[in-house]
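Hey, I'm writing a tutorial for new members on how sequence and structure tokens pair up, and I'd like a real worked example in the thread rather than a made-up one. If someone can provide the structure for the chain below, I'll link this post from the tutorial.
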Amino acid sequence: MVENKPVFSGIDVTESQDGGVIKVLKKQGIGDETPNEGATVHVHYVGTLEDGTQFDSSRDRRKSFEFPLGRGHVISGWELGVETMKKGEICTLTCKPEYAYGKPGKPPTIPQNSTLVFEIELLRWEDEKVTLDSLVSKKIVKRGKGTDRVCDGGTVEVHLVGKIDKRIFDERDVQFIVGEGGESDVIPGVDAAVKTMKKDEISLVNCDSSYAFGEKGKKEWGIDPGMSVEYEIHLKSFEQLKEFWELSSEERIDGAKLVREKGTIYFKEEKFSLALGKFTRMVSLVESLVEEKDLKQASSLILAGHLNVALCYLKLAKYMECIESCDKALYRDKNNVKAIYRKGRAKLAMHYPDEALEQFQKVIKLDPKNKDARTYYAIAKKQIVEYRAKEKKIFANMFDKFAKQDAMIAARAESLHDHNSKDVFTRAEEDAKMTFKGEHKENGEHGNPDERKDESSH
């Protein structure tokens, strides 16, 4: 535990300056940056009651604690205090009950109406991950207002500044429908990022090439294939669609059918990212329906949605996501040929021909006339044969090498053994001769010991 002597006197970090969270700096941090809302922060902490009784400690567990800042995963006193900290900083936060566990406390360790004292060390943080694969990250430059965020289908007005190594290649005001940014030349990474933003927020968003201009690049903007980009996004305004729970069952089903049609159009135009957004919303609209009269329609729409989402992921070379969507479809229909076939295609693309072959066999069993399944069954089988032949060759070469090494080792051992054996017997014979000669010299006898032995035998 760090020495309790403070570096500076305490400051109130609450917005209302009501004294609810007092921060005392114990060790200066590095640099000027502090973590933003949404960032995943890593800390060590020791929590005590006002009388010094310790109730929790990450240090005792010898494992740091991590949480997303500003997402309600920790007490509000922590949210307010940690966002003011710099990397490496150590401070204490004294949190009144209303900024900790309130009147109820947290029995049995934290009594009712407890003021808590936390010593916190901010180890590091990572910017907010916009996408599950962490290929799009976001850092807030200016906080937005309110708590509402836009969802798929909502209309946003943004100011964009796209950069590569400080070179601006795209600067404009644009209005687009979230989930359909591609129609307005807005990259998927930006389209995904605006869903995490609040009104008036300004953020820097880093996008991997797969969420930017991909392997094609954009020649007119001087963007080569495979380039990652950065966008500064200012969310000026947005018009939200109704939330799912605000829609009637009929409105959800009609909405799902409508976005399905639009998704199909995008898919035919090979705008797979846009199609994916529509099919994803299609599933979301009807997944929560529970009314008996709606279940049959909803079930077929959900199944179709998962199948279409899987197909889009397959086209976008996002194979793990494709398999996940196939499994969701198979949960509803375990013998669905399309789901099994698309899962096989994804497995094959991931270089798992054995597992792919198994999927194609299932398809052929369910649908013997399925030409595509038979074609990819043959491809998977060929890959397996080629892989095993290559593996056999590798192991054969390996065994030959080992055999040669073993033969060399054995030859050396035999040679050494012969040499050592010869030396031993030679030395023994010489020792015997020398001993014999010495004895007979003392007695005045001469001659070959072997001859004398023969003579003595007569």
